[in-house]
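Section 5.1 Outputs to date
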Amino acid sequence: MWTHDALLARRETGGRTGVGRVAPDLSLEPAPPSGAGRQRPLAYPHRLVDRRRGVARLLGGYHRHRPAVRPVPRPAERNLVSGEGVRMSGYAELHCHSCFSLLDGASTPEALVDRAVELGLPALALTDHDGLYGAVRFYVAARERGLHPVIGAEVTLEGDSHLVLLAENRAGYANLCALITRAQLDRSKGQARLKVSHLRGRTDGLIALTGCRKGRVPSLLLAGERDKALTALRTLKSLFGPRNLYVELQHHLHREDAALMADLAELAQALRLPVVATHNVHYATRQGHRLHDVLTAIRHNVPLQDAQKHLRANSEYFLPSPNEMAHRFAAYPEAVENTLDIAGRCKVDLDFRCDALPPLPGDADPDARLADLCRAAVPARYPRNPDRALQQLEHELRIIRQTRLAGYFLLVWDIVRFARDRGILVRGRGSAANSIVAYLLGITNVDPLEHDLLFERFLSAEARVMPDIDLDFCARRREEVIQYIYERYGESHVGMVCNYVTYQERSAARDVGKALG
């Protein structure tokens, strides 16, 4: 990293110190004089001239008279090996919002993946606000397109400051889920908040980035509170450690971006922390900013013409190419390279197979226990024709054994038994009614033999889809069942699952029309 004195020496010698060199298409020129024959002191003394376009673009300077951009060869073509068996080059975006950042992200996870592949990015992170709602769709789409997926979230801390968390492994993913759950507790809808104290003991397997302008450290620097920013950064370092905390740099062509990056880089150097470049993506392509403006107006419930104070200053929050990032972060090439190191470390594998059932109480073998329960119920369910029932039972038990689902049937049976013992109305429905095992366990009350129902419609050895048994409970007493499940199997083995509601055409047209006036 360049020191203050080295940068000043470079400026005084016209940009030639022998340490770096100007990229072939770019050059540094002094800004033209201001006023009639008189040059006043400038806060942004250097301009980066793009010879290919024939225009001079001011990328921002620094109030301490440091060059805005360090002229070095672009790192985009370097081949970097990051992580075990993961070969990447160029740039990986690690701060990206989809439409699952509700009314903030303007692109679907699939659209972001497609654009990343088109740009040649080797990896992409999804970091929606305070949730993992889009993680599965993103993960599946990325895998299908050959893109390395990084799963994360941008969590909100008390004081409305942001912090990006990336899951490095399964432990990190579990901790991220736990933190998001904690942030939602005792909070109104859309007001998830974490205390810094909640992070303690939940940072294993997580990589933290200090966030955008709403991050605690950048926001304090923008407010001129350097000492407080340094203290906040020390706190994060104590929580995550020096290897898992990165100071996040962003450049969206705002006047103060270069100065803010320089301040952040100074703090990082003072605490011996690495820096990383991100782009805080909110839409796949530049054209998406118009939709993002409309979504912002809807989110704040104001017409678009009155939403100026809520809108982003420009249309720069798109998914950038590696070359674009190399240009913007020419002064900090290590920040671009570190994106690949982080992406290579993040290897969360979302395994959708049924391998994570909670352990059953006791030491009984699940297959043997299931077979005993079902065989014992045959005389009561089939007093007239037990032989046919036993034949079908053995067929189903064989398939259940092959698919390792005995524990699943026992779990559902246990829940149904609890409800009936407490007098709570319960009913199993759906394709589970095709199973004689479900019938013998009392999960369903439809005789599959009497109605000639096909078990393979519910479960077959060839199917790769996890079967599900739908249970309906009395709405007034369902909470009793939920609490029993938590107590019986433990909080670490139980999770609440929800559906999400999407805009329908009529409501979308109504809200967009309202925003557009």
